Amino acid sequence: MNILDFLQHGLLNFSIVQILIALLIITQITILAVTLYLHRDQTHRGLILHPLVRHFFRLHLWLTTGMLTKDWVAIHRKHHAKCETEEDPHSPQFHGINNVLYSGVELYTKERHNQETIDQYGKGTPNDWIERHVYTRFHFLGIALMFVIDVALFGAIGITFWAVQIVWIPFFAAGVINGLGHWAGYRNYSTNDCSTNLTRFGFIIGGEELHNNHHAFPSSCKFSHKKGEYDWGWYAIKFLNKLKLAKIKKTVPELESRTTTAVVDIESLKAMLTHKVNLLQVYVKDVIKPAIQQEYASRTNQVRKSSDKFINSMSIDWRFLDDDAKDLLKQYIHTSPTIEIIIKFRDDLRAIWESSGQSTDQMIEALKEWCNNAEKSGVGVLQVYAKKIQTYRLKTV
Predict the structure, then answer these.
(1) Of 221, 248, 275, which closes a domain?
(2) How far apart are CA 393 and CA 272, in angstroms?
(3) Are residues 73 and 110 both part of a single domain?
(4) In this predicted model, what pLDDT tens digit does every residue of 81-99 receive, in sequence order?
C-alpha cells in the first residue's frame, strides 16, 4: 500500500457501508459505556459490572469522550438531588430548552469545574493509579489518540468518523436526554419533576429514552417498565449477566392486582408506597380524564383542546406549569363540582403517601378512610379507583 492509498483508505480499506457499520457499533459501545457503566453501575448502583467490563468502559470513554467517571457521576447525582431547581446543572425549566438541547456540553463543562459538586456527589468512583495518573492527568489525550487511530484505520474519512464519535454523547446525552427528556414526551409516573419518556423504543440511546421511568425509580437498572417499552441497555445487562460479567442488583418490584383481596393492609400499603408515582399517574388516566370527558361530552374543538391540555397538566407539578396552564387548572377546578371533588381526593391521597412522621398503622387507617370516603363520593370513576388500589400487592418473585 502506497502513502496515497493509505491516506485515502487507511489500513482497513473499508467501503462506505463497512465504515457506517463500524461507526454504528462504536457509537453504541459508547452509549452502553455511559448507560451501563456511568449511569446504572457507578451513579445509582443498581448494577454491578465485572471489573474487566468496568475498565473496558473507562478506557473506551477516555478515548471517545474524554469524560471522567467522577465528573459524570457527580453531575448526574446532583441533577437528581436538585432536579428542576436553580441548582440543577441542566434543567430546561431554568436554563431553557434551547440552551440544554444545543449547549448541554457547555453546562456540563461549567459544572465539572465546580469542585464543591465533584467533592460532594462524586464519592465512591474509581481513584486508582491509572485514574489519577493517566485518565485524569491526561484528560484529553485519549481523544487525540482516538483521532490518530481513526485516521490510521479509515484514512481521510476517519476525520469525520472521529468527529461523529466525539459529538455523539454531547448531543444525545447532554442535549437530547437532559433537554427533551425534561420537556417533551409521555409520562408513566407523576414524579415531582418534568421528566418524560421520549419514546417506547430505547434503541438509539441505550434505553435512556425512558427517562421518566428512570426518575421514578432511579436505582433500578431496568428502564422499561410497561408493556411495549424496550430498553436496549437492559438486554445488554441480561447478556452480560449470563456471562457472569454483570450482577443485577436492583429492579422495580412489579405490581399485581389480587381481586380476591381488596383491603388496605400492610401488603397493599407497601405496594401503594412503592408505586405511588405510578398510581398518581393512573389517577390522571382512570379518574380525571374520563371525568373531564363526561363533563364536557358535547365540547367544541376549542374546549377539547383546552381540556386535553388540562389533563396533561395534571401529571406535572404545579411549580413547572406556565401561567396559562395554571389559569386553566383554576378554571376547571372552580367551575365544576365533580372536577373539584376528584382533584381534592387526588391531593388528599398524595398527602397521605408523602406524609412523614406517621406510623404504619396510622397510614393504613388514613388510607382506609380515604377509600371509604371515595366510595361514598358518588363519583363513579373515583369509586372504581378506590376499590382497585386496595387490590394491589407487590409481586412475589
Answers:
(1) 248
(2) 8
(3) yes
(4) 999 999 999 999 889 999 9
Q: What is the pLDDT of residues 173-213, one digit of tens each?
A: 888 999 999 998 999 998 989 999 999 999 889 999 999 99
- The terminus-to-terminus CA distance of the chain in angstroms comes to 61
Q: Which element (helix H / strand E) includes 248?
A: strand 246-248
* CA angle (207 as vertex; 212, 86 as ends), nearest 5: 40
All three cell numbers of 51? 471489573
Predicted local confidence at residue 6, as pLDDT: 67
- Report the distance separating Cα 7 and Cα 95, nearest Å: 44
Report pLDDT for 200. 94
| Count of all residues that appear for the chain in the document | 397
Q: What are the b/e assignments for 24-50, b being 16+ CB within 10 Å?
A: eebbbebbbbbbbbbbbbbbbebbebe
Strands 255-257 and 392-394: antiparallel
In this structure, are 211 and 285 located in the same domain? no
Contact (Cβ atoms closer than 8 angstroms) between residue 353 and residue 362: no
Please choose, from the candidates 384, 37, 1, the residue with its C-alpha nearest in 3D space to the C-alpha of residue 233.
Answer: 37
For all residues of the chain together, what is the average pLDDT? 90
In contact, 117 and 75? CB cutoff 8 Å: yes
Of 230, 248, 266, the last residue of a domain is: 248
203, 279: one domain = no
Q: In terms of C-beta density within 10 A (0-12 exposed, 13-18 middle, 19 or more buried), how is residue 321 classed?
A: middle
User: Which pLDDT does position 301 carry in this prediction?
Assistant: 62
Cell of 272: 401503594
**Is 140 found in the same domain as 191?**
yes
Residue 62 CB: number of other CB atoms within 10 A? 26
155 and 300 in a single domain? The answer is no
Are 295 and 338 contacting, i.e. CB atoms less than 8 angstroms apart?
yes
Q: Phi first, then psi: what are they for 210, rounded to 5°?
A: -90, 60
* Contact of 75 with 112, CB cutoff 8 Å: yes
The grid coordinates listed for 115 are 469542585
**Helix and strand numbers, DSSP H then E, in the chain:** 21, 6
Q: Which residues pair with 231 in a beta bridge?
A: 202
Question: Across the strands, what pairs with 48?
Answer: 247
Domain with 368, as residue range(s), is 257-394
Domain count of the fold of the chain: 2
